[in-house]
Design the sequence.
């Protein structure tokens, strides 16, 4: 039967916001003003039904006759040049399943398949092929997942026959052959390829494609963390592996709240009343670089599943996002070949995080965006998630022989093949072509219903162990879960999105929204019932054995038979040399500015300092109703807070605090002090809200260039900094991730190393959220106290210096000895109720923090410099671990900050201006309205008014 | 006896926990009910005194926000829904739940299948989450008894919240006093100005009820402000009572008095 097409558009005369948004982009991003109008129509296609049935669907489902009209099997948009954009075949369109469901609900029979897409009609003298091609290329079509439809498709059903399992004749391969096999596909080095060859020589047979791929996935940097587990030789000295150092440091703290560290899908700490909280932070750089919307979505979806798959199942309560991009104003000619423009990336990544988090109902409420031109080849996309679960089920059980391996959730498709190995490889100008299949479009609703079902199953005690299908798919999840028992898998049972997948593709597909559970056989019927109730597909994919073999069959044929021992312990240990080379940076000390007000405004409008409110507003940061310290507050709702505080147990005052810190600029200048800064900043943000430093745990994310000896030297220093931080403060790292592929290489051999980023996330518990504070000044006439230790002349890497064109080398060296005492003091002061507001000092320095506090309170401030203060250093130094505190009354309360560096620097005023005085004379006076305008402008330019 | 509340869930419902809590805090006894449980007969609407359709993205808001669930309800639960409403039992739809009520026809005319209003894409073209002020209008709505004239600070979080109806329909809503809430500016008056009116809703309408006042829908989320500490500025003072709570208390009271 022919395909029926239904087109739907808003009635002429009513706004078409999709068209208007695109037109805004065309005018502002592409500068094509001669395209003067755009109308859009949704296109729905149905296979297997007749025209009358299509009319029923149009009238009762697709078109709202109040404001829309439709057509059947004929064009709808009038005039203009019409272009249709659709997902490529095989890329899952989440809407298709809803169309099929609703058609069935309406009693439509015979429907075989459905799809949807969108048509755009361009109007005006500029609606010519050249311009429209540009619009398609730059704004509308990401060729990785989308395409322009030129003619009506013949069928919506994807046909295909499964490929056969192939034998790889590895035993006869030379070293060159081995590396040819590895390149672009396996991303293993020669030594590792040889280990595989030798293993099969020993077995006296050649491997299947499935076996080789399984090994490559398990041994990938992404899954195996080879660099972090390698023995390092630094300056002739042998040092223990990076991961071991971090784990040992955590163990050394003996922290009483840690329930599980580095072993589960996320780190778990004790909460209150028998509950535990968990946190995980992930990177998703490579997929986001080539398809930012889908990449960011799958990043969020993946990290949410990490939380869901912690212990025996957790509920996700928060999401965070930290991004690094090149400046969105960068000229296109500066963007390297094969890379996407930073403004496009930023907008699409935000949209991906927005759509996944909002639809899942996870509040995204802590994050930051950083800009540096060296991210032009690849952005850094960090997404975190936090959850809550009963302490009694916060650790996984072990599957016993005979237990069932159940997969639940979405179906398996070809998407995401080679995701794990891909993200471990360097990005090259070929990446976009070769690895297109690594990108997926997430379906948040699939994940939401899976989460609903999983939580219910968990509550009923049906889940022995659970893990998500992330990188490496079933292979990784089952290989891990069955590592101590062995597992037998019947691949043909996996529900597929479409036919035609080879066994190894089913096995390693990274299709989203799937989880694997270990379930007692007598629990399976009830689990199946729960899944049915929530519209979640679940099948028994295999069984745990006792033979410590990973055995995978497809319709009776064995496609993989590997010893767990070799799979998990056969990877040759690496021994790597590391030697950091200090970057050649000139020490430069910019003097005072010619115009203070202009300098202040420039700092406030620097992309690292400016308000990110337009981004946060697009995230549903209030869903779940748990925000007690939201990202923005203050009298006008536009003043940022340092951390988020949530109350996940309704009706109780127990709080979860979440914050983070990172600074790519400082990390490039000196990895050790840059990393200390990141950790100090993360914790400062939590403490500024009122968190007790002894109730905080940490998560590390190292996003580093490909580990050559120089990068590895920097990494070694960064890890040392983390370890020293743990020792000095007693705060443990309980989860972490490394992503060592931030290197770009083009055809001409040009190498761009993306700046190394250590992102430290902090999360903790607060016994009583009523004893927390926000950052907005509460009234005029309060004293302002600067608390914490800093050396103001340490200006390198500051926004002030960068604006003067000088990064310098004399960066802030956080004194970790003093730091913990400062944290404790600030916490005690807030807890005592004598603090009205507190803001941590970071990018933009004291001046930026002060301005934000003034915005929030709709007040101004007077600040007095002392003899010896260098004004620009006093105002713009960015040492982490320092705070601005508003106290009750103008005078310093005795003892409040005893024993730690502090100074009463001024007071709040009713007049909305910031006045900096020396010896009673005004050095300058800045109107807060002007500062606020400068601070808000940049992101409005990127995201629209 | 505490009134029993059916908190209806479907795939993609996500404001169910806080809606549940808001009603429990108001003195009700709540139960999460999946639409499949109603379809299978495992649960019956008749066993409840209040029906709550929480926010979220039911079925991904595919095609139109709330549409797929609206089709499901009108296809399979037509009679029990109509019976529930005709029995004089309160129904509240929040955000996505409001969209569903409008797309079933229960609002504004409490006639299934008779769709008179719509919630369109926000004029800004963006999903938006922010605290707004809404003014409580004089209406027969049982959820806002005693609140008339009050200004409530409540959060919105939606991408499709622009209330739209043809002029005649709007006039009829106004004449019958079916407008329950309007977005208000800093002066406390209804406004079309962004961002105080966050989506461009006609007549600044944030919520409406049917003529009996028993079926109510609104875009803002009163369930997110039932404890003082849920407001971003509770530390700045000025709140005696959480602004969203009375909406739920009123519904519970109404049932107790029945």
Sequence:
């Amino acid at each position: 039967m022919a395909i029926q097409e239904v087109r739907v558009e808003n009635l002429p005369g009513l706004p078409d916001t999709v068209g208007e948004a695109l037109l805004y982009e065309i005018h502002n991003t592409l500068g094509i003003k001669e395209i003067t109008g755009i109308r859009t129509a949704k296109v729905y296609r149905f296979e297997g039904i007749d025209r009358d049935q299509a009319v029923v669907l149009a009238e009762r489902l697709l078109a709202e006759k109040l404001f829309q009209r439709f057509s059947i099997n004929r064009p709808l948009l009038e005039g203009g040049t019409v272009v249709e954009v659709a997902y490529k075949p095989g890329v899952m369109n989440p809407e298709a399943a809803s169309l099929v469901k609703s058609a069935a609900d309406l009693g439509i029979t015979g429907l075989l398949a459905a799809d949807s897409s969108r048509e755009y009609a361009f109007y005006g003298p500029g609606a010519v092929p050249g311009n429209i091609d540009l619009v398609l290329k730059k704004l509308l079509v990401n060729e990785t997942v989308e395409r322009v439809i030129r003619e009506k498709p013949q069928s919506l059903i994807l046909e295909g026959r499964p490929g056969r399992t192939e034998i790889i004749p590895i035993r006869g391969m030379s070293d060159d052959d081995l590396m040819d096999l590895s390149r672009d596909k396996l991303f293993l080095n020669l030594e590792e390829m040889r280990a595989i060859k030798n293993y099969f020589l020993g077995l006296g047979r050649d491997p299947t494609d499935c076996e080789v791929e399984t090994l490559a996935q398990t041994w990938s940097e992404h899954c195996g963390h080879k660099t972090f587990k390698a023995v390092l030789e630094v300056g002739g000295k042998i040092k223990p592996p990076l991961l071991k150092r971090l784990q040992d440091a955590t163990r050394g703290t003996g922290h009483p709240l840690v329930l599980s560290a580095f072993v589960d899908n996320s780190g778990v700490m004790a909460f209150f009343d028998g509950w535990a909280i968990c946190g995980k932070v992930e990177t998703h750089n490579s997929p986001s670089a080539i398809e930012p919307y889908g990449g960011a979505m799958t990043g969020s979806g993946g990290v949410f599943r990490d939380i869901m798959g912690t212990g025996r199942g957790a509920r996700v309560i928060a999401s965070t996002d930290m991004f690094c991009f090149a400046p969105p104003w960068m000229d296109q000619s500066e963007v390297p070949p094969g890379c996407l423009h930073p403004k496009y990336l930023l907008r699409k990544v935000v949209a991906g995080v927005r759509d996944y988090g909002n639809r899942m109902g996870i509040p995204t409420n802590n994050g930051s965006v950083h800009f540096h031109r060296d991210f032009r080849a690849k952005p850094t996309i960090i997404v975190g998630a936090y959850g809550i679960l009963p302490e009694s089920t916060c650790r996984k059980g072990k599957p016993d022989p005979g237990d069932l391996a159940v997969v639940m959730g979405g179906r398996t498709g070809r998407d995401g093949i080679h995701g794990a190995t891909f993200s471990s490889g360097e990005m090259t100008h070929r990446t976009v072509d070769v690895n297109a299949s690594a990108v997926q479009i997430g379906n948040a609703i699939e994940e939401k219903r899976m989460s609903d079902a999983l939580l219910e199953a968990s509550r009923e005690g049906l889940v022995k162990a659970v893990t998500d299908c992330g990188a490496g798919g079933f292979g990784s999840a089952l290989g891990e879960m069955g590592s101590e028992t062995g597992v037998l898998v019947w691949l043909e049972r996996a529900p597929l999105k479409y036919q035609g997948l080879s066994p190894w593709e089913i096995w390693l597909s990274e299709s989203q929204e799937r989880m694997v559970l270990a379930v007692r056989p007598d629990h399976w019927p009830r689990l199946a019932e729960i899944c049915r109730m929530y519209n979640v597909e679940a099948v028994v994919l295999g069984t745990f054995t006792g033979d410590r073999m990973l055995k995978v069959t497809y319709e009776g044929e064995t496609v993989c038979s590997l010893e767990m021992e070799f799979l998990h312990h056969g990877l040759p240990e690496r021994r790597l040399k590391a030697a950091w080379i200090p970057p050649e940076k000139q020490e430069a000390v910019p003097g005072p500015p010619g115009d203070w007000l202009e300098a202040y405004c420039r700092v406030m409008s620097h992309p690292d300092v400016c308000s990110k409110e337009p981004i946060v507003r697009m995230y549903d940061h209030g869903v779940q109703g748990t925000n007690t310290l939201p990202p923005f507050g203050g009298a006008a709702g536009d003043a940022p807070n340092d951390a988020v505080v949530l109350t996940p147990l309704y009706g109780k005052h127990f709080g979860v605090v979440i914050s983070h810190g990172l600074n790519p600029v400082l990390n490039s200048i000196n990895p050790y002090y840059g990393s200390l800064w990141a950790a100090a900043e993360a914790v400062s943000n939590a403490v500024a809200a009122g968190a007790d430093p002894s109730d905080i745990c940490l998560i590390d994310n190292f996003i580093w260039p490909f580990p050559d000896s120089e990068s590895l030297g920097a990494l070694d220093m960064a890890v040392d900094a983390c370890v020293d931080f743990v020792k000095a403060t007693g705060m443990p790292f309980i989860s972490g991730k490394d992503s060592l592929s931030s290197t770009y290489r083009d055809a001409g051999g040009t190498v761009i190393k993306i700046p190394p980023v250590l992102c430290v996330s902090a999360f903790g518990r607060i016994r009583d959220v009523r004893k927390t504070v926000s950052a907005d000044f509460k009234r005029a006439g309060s004293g302002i106290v600067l608390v914490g230790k800093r050396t103001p002349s340490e200006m390198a890497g500051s926004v002030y210096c960068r604006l003067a064109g000088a990064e310098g080398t004399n960066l802030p060296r956080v004194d970790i000895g003093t730091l913990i005492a400062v944290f404790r003091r600030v916490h005690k002061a807030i807890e005592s109720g004598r603090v009205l507001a507190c803001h941590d000092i970071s990018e933009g320095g004291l001046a930026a923090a002060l301005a934000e506090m003034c915005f929030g309170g709709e007040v101004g401030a007077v600040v007095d410099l002392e003899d010896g203060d260098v004004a620009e250093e006093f105002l713009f130094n960015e040492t982490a671990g320092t705070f601005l505190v508003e106290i009750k009354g103008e005078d310093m309360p005795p003892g409040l900050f005893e024993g730690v560096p502090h100074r009463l620097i001024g007071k709040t005023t009713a007049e909305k201006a910031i006045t900096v005085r020396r010896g009673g004379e005004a050095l300058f006076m800045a109107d807060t309205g002007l500062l606020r305008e400068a601070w808000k402008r940049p992101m409005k330019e990127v995201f629209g008014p | 006896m505490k009134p029993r509340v059916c908190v209806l869930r479907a795939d993609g419902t996500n404001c169910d926990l806080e809606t549940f809590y808001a009603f429990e805090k108001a003195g009700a006894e709540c139960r999460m009910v999946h639409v499949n449980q109603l379809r299978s007969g495992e649960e019956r609407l008749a066993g409840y005194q209040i029906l709550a359709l929480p926010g979220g993205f039911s079925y991904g808001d595919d095609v139109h926000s709330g549409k797929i669930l609206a089709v499901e309800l009108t296809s399979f639960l037509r009679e029990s829904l109509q019976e529930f409403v005709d029995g004089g039992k309160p129904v509240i739809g929040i955000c996505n739940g409001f969209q569903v009520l409008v797309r079933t026809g229960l609002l504004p005319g409490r006639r299934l299948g008779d769709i008179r209003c719509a919630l369109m894409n926000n004029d800004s073209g963006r999903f938006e989450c922010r605290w707004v002020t809404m003014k409580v209008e004089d209406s027969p709505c049982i959820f806002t008894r005693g609140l008339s004239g009050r200004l409530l600070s409540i959060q919105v979080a939606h991408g499709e919240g622009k209330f739209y109806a043809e002029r005649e329909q709007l006039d009829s809503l106004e004449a019958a006093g079916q407008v329950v809430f309007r977005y208000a500016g800093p002066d406390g008056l209804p406004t079309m100005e962004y961002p105080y009116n966050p989506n461009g809703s006609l007549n600044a309408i944030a919520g409406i009820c049917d003529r009996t006042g028993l079926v109510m829908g609104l875009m803002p989320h009163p369930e997110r402000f039932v404890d003082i500490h849920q407001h971003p500025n509770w530390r700045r003072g000025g709140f005696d009572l959480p602004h969203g709570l009375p909406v739920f208390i009123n519904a519970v009271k109404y049932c107790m008095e029945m």
About this structure: Chain B touches chain A through 64 residues (CB under 8 Å). Residues 123 and 200 of chain B are 6 Å apart (CA to CA).
